[in-house]
């Protein structure tokens, strides 16, 4: 009887399973609830599943889904809807416009606009999305946050500028870096350090001070900046005060970083066995011997070089800001401190920054405002990581030394001195038959060398705005961007790169300055109750200068000296450079919005550039 009941139960289950797993083909049309027009490119996905499709040019779609599934309909500028299939084969959906999203203000260059009115491709990311990320500069936090933007962090060295691409690489031989505009002033990008510690100027912008990041991607969105915007434009808007009582905010975080997915290395016995077998298979290398010796504590030498090069980095970040204002004057003040340790020993990043923004309405006609920010960044390293641009994973780089050095060699001799043989690591009695090894002892470089850069960055602007009529706005603004970089290199004569020089020192100071003066006139008028016209005309002047000078010193007269100022035999000039350019521009933009349905935008710009002369 039990067997009969069990068989009946299994038979019932088999009949039920096809019903549970049955799929249906759902088709239909997606339209706008405002006017019933078809919506092409709407994304339809099975909730909780991997299948999906898009509507065609007529708003039609077809998808296979379980009969009890939920279909999710989403489209930019419209509210997302979830609709139950309920075993239906036809589903027509009308999406309602998302007024909050469409009315969002984005920066478009020399002004702002609602997303509804923007004809170009602009992606917007709120500053709050990256405020508490453990990054040095804001662009590292943009990865995956807006379509068409590619962010690649090239290595684990702190403050190394990420590879920033908007819609791919646009040049074979020239830079594909986008133009970065901070509160209306184009700023410096790239690596301004000449040491093993990169100096990214964008790290001076505290992510916690950013209100929004607007990314202009196509020609329609970037044309107002001319040829400089060929790779796209990123508009950074810092926070400003709002009317109301004084608000005081603090936020901070603590984090840890480790190197991961490191390949497992041979220990002492495995290494000796492997290398001895290799020697046995090579008659010409019969003189080479690999043996085991003990350290000062009587234990067999088994060095894990990862432990000599890498560490667990501890980082912490702190920010405090004060904001508030009245009906006429608003202010925002912030102070930040960041201390981050990298995964490589002696690789640190420290930043102290402050920002002050103020806006004041003097009368119905005049408004003034300004900003000043200052940042000091310490970019610290001991020696080459082998991972920066131009280093090509070199033999003296810490990344390579950690995987090529034998575990049967120790960083120190038993008497406490460094295990060196000339510039390279010594083989002691562990390896015989080889005259010398070609790799450095990383501990010598980590404990005695330095390769640091210090940046002081000042960004400031001020504006005066005059509004004689409610549809006319005249504005004049002046901004500066000053970057001062000090590079400090010292290589000890005890080993590594400094051995052949009997000590090496280098100091290079670079001063990079930009000023921008912009004057615009904005006219906004509605005609016949249908045409909403917006006309911008403007003129801009920009001057940029760069000056650098330095000294290279070799041959220490006294091993106690480690500073560039004294104790050297040979002096050479280094890092000398001078540059200057001037940009004189005129530009205009016309936007026509007809019944909030049809949009027309035209832009023009002329640049006169001294570098073309």
Description:
By secondary structure, the chain is mostly beta strands. Helices cover 10% and strands 46% of the residues. Strands 17-19-20-21-22-26-27-28-29-30-31 form an 11-stranded antiparallel beta sheet. The protein has a 5-stranded mixed beta sheet with strand order 10-15-16-13-14. A 4-stranded antiparallel beta sheet has the order 3-2-5-6, with no helix packed on it.
Structural class: mainly beta
* Outline: globular
**Number of strand elements:** 31
Number of helices: 7
Summed over residues and divided by their number, the pLDDT gives a mean of 90
For the biggest β-sheet, the strand order reads 17-19-20-21-22-26-27-28-29-30-31
User: How far apart lie the N and C ends?
Assistant: 102 Å
Assess the beta-strand content as a share of residues.
Answer: over 45%
Q: pLDDT below 50 for ≥5 consecutive residues: which ranges?
A: 1-21
Helix content: under 10%
Please state the CA-atom Rg, rounded to the nearest Å: 32 Å
Largest sheet: 11 strands, antiparallel
Oligomeric state as shown: single chain
């Amino acid at each position: 009887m039990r067997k009969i009941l069990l068989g009946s139960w299994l038979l019932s289950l088999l009949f039920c399973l096809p019903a549970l797993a049955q799929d249906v083909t759902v088709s239909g049309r997606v339209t706008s609830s405002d006017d019933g027009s078809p919506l092409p490119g709407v994304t339809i996905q099975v909730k909780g599943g991997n299948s999906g499709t898009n509507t065609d040019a007529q708003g039609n779609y077809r998808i296979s889904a379980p009969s009890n599934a939920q279909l999710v309909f989403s489209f930019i500028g419209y509210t997302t809807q979830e609709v139950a299939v309920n075993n239906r084969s036809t589903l027509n959906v009308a999406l309602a416009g998302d007024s909050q999203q469409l009315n969002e203000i984005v920066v478009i260059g020399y002004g702002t606009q609602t997303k509804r009115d923007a004809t170009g491709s602009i992606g917007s990311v709120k500053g709050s999305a990256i405020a508490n990320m453990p990054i040095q500069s804001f662009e590292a936090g943009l990865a995956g946050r807006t379509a068409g933007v590619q962010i690649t962090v090239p290595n684990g060295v702190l403050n190394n500028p990420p590879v920033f691409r908007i819609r791919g690489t646009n040049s074979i031989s020239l830079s594909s870096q986008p133009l970065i505009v901070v509160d209306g002033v184009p700023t410096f990008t790239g690596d301004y350090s000449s040491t093993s510690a990169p100096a990214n100027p964008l790290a001076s912008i505290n992510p916690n001070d950013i209100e929004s990041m607007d990314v202009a991607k196509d020609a329609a969105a970037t044309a107002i900046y001319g040829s400089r915007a060929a790779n796209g434009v990123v508009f950074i808007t810092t926070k400003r005060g709002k009317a109301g009582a004084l608000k005081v905010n603090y936020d901070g975080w603590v984090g840890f970083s480790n190197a991961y997915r490191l390949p497992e290395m041979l220990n002492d016995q495995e290494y000796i066995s492997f290398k001895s077998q290799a020697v046995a298979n090579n008659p010409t290398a019969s003189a080479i011997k690999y043996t085991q010796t003990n350290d000062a504590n009587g234990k067999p030498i088994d060095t894990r070089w990862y432990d000599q090069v890498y560490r667990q980095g501890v980082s912490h970040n702190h920010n405090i800001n004060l904001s508030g204002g009245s009906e006429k004057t608003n202010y925002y003040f912030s102070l930040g401190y960041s201390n981050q340790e990298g995964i490589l020993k002696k690789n640190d990043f420290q930043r102290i920054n402050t920002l002050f923004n103020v806006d004041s309405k003097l009368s119905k006609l005049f408004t003034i405002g300004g900003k000043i920010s200052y940042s000091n960044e310490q970019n610290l390293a001991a020696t080459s990581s082998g991972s920066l641009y131009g280093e090509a994973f070199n033999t003296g780089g810490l990344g390579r030394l950690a995987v090529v050095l034998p575990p049967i060699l120790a960083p120190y001799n038993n008497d406490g001195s460094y295990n060196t043989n000339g510039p390279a690591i010594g083989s002691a009695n562990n390896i015989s038959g080889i005259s010398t090894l070609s790799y450095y002892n990383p501990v010598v470089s980590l404990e005695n060398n330095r390769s640091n850069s210090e940046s002081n960055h000042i960004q400031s602007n001020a504006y005066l705005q005059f509004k004689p009529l409610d549809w006319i706005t005249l504005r004049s603004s002046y901004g500066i961007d000053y970057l001062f970089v000090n590079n400090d290199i010292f290589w000890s004569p005890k080993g590594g790169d400094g051995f052949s020089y009997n000590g090496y020192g280098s100091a290079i100071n670079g001063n990079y300055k930009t000023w921008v003066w912009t004057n615009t006139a904005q006219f906004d008028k509605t005609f016949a109750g249908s045409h909403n016209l917006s006309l911008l005309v403007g003129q801009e002047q920009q001057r940029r200068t760069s000056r650098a000078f330095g000294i290279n010193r070799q041959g220490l007269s006294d091993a106690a000296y480690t500073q560039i100022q004294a104790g050297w035999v040979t002096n050479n000039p280094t890092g000398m450079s001078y540059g200057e350019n001037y940009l004189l521009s005129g530009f205009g933009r016309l936007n026509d919005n007809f019944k909030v349905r049809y949009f027309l935008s035209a832009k023009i710009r002329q640049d006169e550039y001294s570098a073309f002369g």
